[in-house]
Design a protein that fits this description.
Largest sheet: 7 strands, parallel
CATH architecture: 3-Layer(aba) Sandwich
Helix content: 40-55%
Distance between the termini: 43 Å
CATH topology: Rossmann fold
CATH class: Alpha Beta
CATH superfamily: NAD(P)-binding Rossmann-like Domain
Structural class: alpha/beta
Radius of gyration: 17 Å
């Protein structure tokens, strides 16, 4: 009797920061992975590390804003049996230094929306047939900037707010799926360092601290909705 293959997660932005931490966390609990990032060398380093631990990993470098790259990601997941979990983590901070809305370039705003909203929707659309067949899970990695008003975060916050609303609607339209808007909170990542250039961000938690909250979310599979990593962690500790 043949055994079913392990579940497959498609993780974007997996060469560093939260994406890398989540890839490592899912590998530990037995998932197959399709991972992407724009820079091939760091992505390949993550893939080699995970393969050395026995994980099946397909590394597909490219830009999630490229339709051909998105199609390649979905195809790679199909080769492994199909997408059970889509972790839409890749994104751009947008223009830096962070500009006020008064001087925000419309071209910069358009580019930020193209990556953080439009490309994410395109990837979800490509993976939907597979996700539906497996009653899968979509995790839209978001930010408190999507729901709060922080000076200089107009482009990024708008793009994340738009992506959140699309994911919110998707959860209503696809009740067989679990669709989560997952807010990891502030972390010690390159994106946060870019946002606060020249400042010491060593007080921010490491992305690995967020992994247990994400694993709990996809394992327990609560109702589709918006979840903060800090709240999930607090419930576990309680």
């Amino acid at each position: 009797m043949s055994l079913s293959p392990p579940p497959t997660a498609l993780i974007t932005g997996a060469s560093e920061g939260l994406g890398r931490a989540l890839a490592r966390g899912l590998a530990v609990v037995g998932w197959q992975l399709v991972i992407d990032a724009r820079r091939p060398a760091p992505l390949d380093a993550v893939a080699r590390e995970l393969r050395a631990g026995g994980t099946t990993v397909e590394a597909v470098p490219g830009d999630v804003a490229d339709p051909a790259h998105r199609a390649a990601l979905v195809a790679a997941a199909e080769e492994l049996g199909g997408t059970d979990l889509l972790l839409a983590n890749a994104g751009t901070l947008g223009p830096t230094p962070l500009p006020p809305v008064a001087t925000l370039s419309l071209d910069d705003l358009e580019r930020t929306l193209a990556v953080n909203t439009v490309a994410q929707v395109g990837l979800i659309q490509g993976a939907l047939p597979s996700l539906r067949a497996r009653r899968g899970t979509v995790v839209a990695v978001t930010s408190d900037a999507a729901v709060e008003g922080f000076e200089g975060w107009g482009a990024y916050g708008a793009s994340k707010a738009a992506f959140e609303q699309v994911a919110h609607v998707l959860g209503a339209e696809e009740p067989q799926l679990a669709v989560y808007r997952f807010d990891p909170g502030d972390m010690r990542t390159q994106m946060h360092q870019d946002a606060f250039a020249g400042e010491d961000i060593s007080d921010r938690p490491d992305p690995t601290t967020v992994v247990p909250a994400l694993l709990r979310l996809i394992t327990e599979r609560p109702a589709s909705g918006r979840y903060r990593a800090s709240e999930l962690a607090a419930e576990v500790q309680a």
